[in-house]
Specification:
Blueprint (H helix, E strand, L loop, with lengths): L4 E2 L5 E2 L2 E3 L5 E3 L7 H5 L10 H12 L39 E9 L11 H10 L4 E7 L2 H21 L4 E9 L5 E6 L5 H12 L11 H19 L6 E6 L9 H10 L4 E7 L39 E2 L2 E2 H4 L4 H7 L5 E4 L11 E2 L6 H4 L6 E2 L16 E7 L4 H10 L2 E5 L3 E9 L11 E5 L3 E10 L14 E8 L15 E8 L6 E10 L4 E8 L4 E2 L11 E2 L14 E4 L2 E6 L1
Parallel strand pairs: 5-6, 6-7, 9-10, 10-13, 19-28
Antiparallel strand pairs: 1-2, 3-4, 5-16, 7-8, 8-9, 11-12, 14-15, 16-17, 17-27, 18-20, 20-23, 21-22, 21-24, 24-27, 24-28, 25-26
Organism: Planotetraspora silvatica
GO molecular function: 5'-3' DNA exonuclease activity; 5'-3' RNA exonuclease activity
Protein name: Histidinol-phosphatase
């Protein structure tokens, strides 16, 4: 049986899973015993008297089936109906496990950014050549951008869509989040995309509104911005909108309570963060590179930094942000609450390492909202820290079709895995019982108490050279498991004690595919699992100790961090929830 929930934005989403009897049904769950109350595939007769009472209360209020799911895991809005009519797609983009796994990048800057240089078409052509199926243009929010840049970049994006038909090009912006750092905001293409982004930026950008300081008023303005986007979708001004926090630990500005606040205010808009920042060439040693911190993570605490963060949080680990790379750390503390919060990996491309371009001469950015087109500069520039989109960092989403809506639905649903340097070519993960197909990344498997569950993992190895002309070798895959313990009493919590590496698989193969099975065993409590993999070149015990993470990513050395010699992939989680 299949039920359709309408989430708070007015979309009708059908996020279906198979239960242990093979019945397909939708899930909507809160922490604790809320899950069976709102899961209408479970008959009243299977509920406790207290749960029946709560369900009757919701029925009387007319709430069941209307999206009372925002508080927790399985409040995940599922995928919307696939785009009508199949669009263009790459011939090599064959469905796997029922989805098109489309590679993309949601953090890219052009000549319309005050620190950018390239034309839209430059990025789109490179992204397409380097294998990206979708991308988001995210020029910096600023007074000049809010005034004219949002308008001026749109014709370039529209033109690029017509020229390059097998890479989807979204328009977005890099939001100066009031009271915090930066984030990607983007909308589905349509007649109101420019007007909606322009109004959003003029009303809620921290730089435009002089609202960058870490104050309660500015934090409230950020929530108001997310509410604006939700309202724009609800009123069908735009078909969809998403927000993801960018390089969240770089300057210590995104406090744990702010991240929770964004996600809790609008869980269908605020869906995640960069697990790995861009600027991955920044750590290449001098004289051949910038000799900085990988990701340009080279900051120290400021007056607006959240004071509880440790010194290590200002560095990357194997190129990944501390919030993601620390097993049992901030990301896991959100997942342990049952919060749907996903990770991505992006280029943050402004100026590309070894490129020969220079910013166009006689440019007047403040007057024109853009720099003149770039020109040949006579030789490669080695002090720039970025790679072209698709060249190094990739975010893979499991879409139901090749289309803008399908990509956004896949991101919202958490069907996402990320990699650096082409470490692997494909990843299929399913949690299942012996007689069901189970669920994939971002999903939740509901099982009877005590059911035995396994996680099947199929990895397509690199099989061909990456853009550094190295065939990456996957050395090890780690399964990370945590208990779902419910809402944190302290919104600034950034650790969770019951998450650790529970299984490691040595690969011992460098061509073709490899498959592994992690036996979860009899499930007696709500848990989640997520994966990561490494080339094994640089490892160290995790920050919470070797008993939690014996061979995690090592902290990146400032000025000496060759990104091609330290490759990782990460998946988003799957929840496994027993019925009580």
């Amino acid at each position: 049986m299949s039920h359709g929930h309408t989430h708070p934005h007015g979309h009708s989403h059908g996020h279906s899973h198979d239960d242990e009897h093979g019945h397909t049904h939708e899930h909507a769950a809160d922490q604790g015993d809320m899950a069976p109350v709102v899961d209408m595939s479970i008959p009243d007769s299977e509920l406790s008297p207290g749960q029946v009472s709560r369900r009757q209360m919701f029925r009387r209020a007319g709430l069941l089936g209307a999206g009372i799911t925002a508080a927790g895991v399985l409040g995940t809005p599922g995928q919307a109906a696939a785009d009508s009519g199949k669009s263009y797609g790459r011939s090599n983009c064959e469905p796997r496990d029922g989805y098109l796994w489309l590679a993309g990048d949601h953090h890219i800057h052009t000549q319309h950014s005050s620190d950018g240089m390239y034309r839209v078409i430059d990025h789109v052509q490179h992204a397409n050549a380097y294998g990206l199926d979708w991308m988001v243009i995210t020029d910096h929010g600023s007074v000049a951008h809010a005034k004219i840049g949002v308008d001026k970049v749109n014709p370039d994006i529209v033109a690029a869509r017509k020229v390059i038909k097998d890479t989807l090009v979204f328009q977005g912006l890099e939001w100066n989040i009031p009271g915090a750092e930066h984030g990607t905001v983007f909308v589905a293409p349509g007649r109101n995309e420019v007007a909606t982004l322009k109004e959003f930026e003029n009303s809620f950008d921290g730089s435009v509104k002089n609202a960058t300081a870490s104050t309660p008023q500015n934090e409230a303005l950020a929530i108001a911005g997310l509410n604006f986007l939700a309202e724009a979708v609800k009123k069908r001004r735009v078909d969809d909108a998403l927000f993801l926090a960018n390089h969240p630990a770089r300057k210590g500005l995104d406090s744990p309570h702010e991240i929770r606040g964004w996600r809790d205010a609008q869980p269908s808009i605020a869906v995640g963060m960069e697990g790995a920042p861009g600027h991955q060439a920044a750590g290449i040693p001098k004289p051949n590179g910038p000799g900085s911190g990988r990701g340009f993570y080279d900051s120290t605490p400021s007056a607006d930094s959240w004071p509880g963060y440790p010194a290590e949080s200002y560095k990357t680990f194997g190129g990944f942000d501390w919030m993601t790379s620390t097993v049992g750390g901030l990301w896991d503390s959100l997942l342990a609450e049952g919060k749907t919060w996903w990770i991505t990996a992006n280029s943050d491309a402004h100026t590309v390492y070894q490129d020969t371009s220079l910013r166009g001469p006689n440019s007047d950015f403040e007057a024109n909202g853009r720099y003149n087109d770039p020109v040949y500069g006579g030789g490669p520039v080695l002090t720039q820290g970025d790679f072209w989109p698709g060249y190094y960092s990739r975010t893979h989403v499991g879409a139901t079709d090749f289309g803008y809506g399908a990509v956004m639905d896949a991101m919202r649903a958490g069907r996402i895995w990320v990699d650096h340097g082409g470490l692997i070519s494909g990843l299929i993960v399913r949690a299942r019982t012996s007689d069901t197909r189970g669920v994939t990344l971002g999903g939740a498997l509901h099982v009877r108490q005590g059911s035995k569950v396994e996680v099947s993992i199929e990895i397509t190895l690199a099989n061909r050279p990456n853009w550094a002309q190295v065939i990456p070798t996957l050395a090890r895959v780690d399964v990370i498991q945590g208990d779902v313990t419910g809402p944190a009493s302290n919104k600034d919590t950034f650790t969770t004690p019951k998450t650790k590496v529970v299984k490691s698989f040595e690969v011992n193969k460098n061509t073709g595919t490899v498959s592994f099975t992690y036996n979860v065993g009899a499930v007696d409590r709500p848990i989640y699992v997520r994966l990561r993999g490494t080339d094994g070149n640089r490892t160290a015990p995790g920050l919470l100790g070797a008993s939690v993470d014996p061979n995690g990513p090592a902290i990146d050395v400032f000025g000496d961090a060759d990104p091609w010699k330290d490759l990782w992939f990460y998946s988003n989680p799957i929840w496994i929830l027993p019925r009580r």
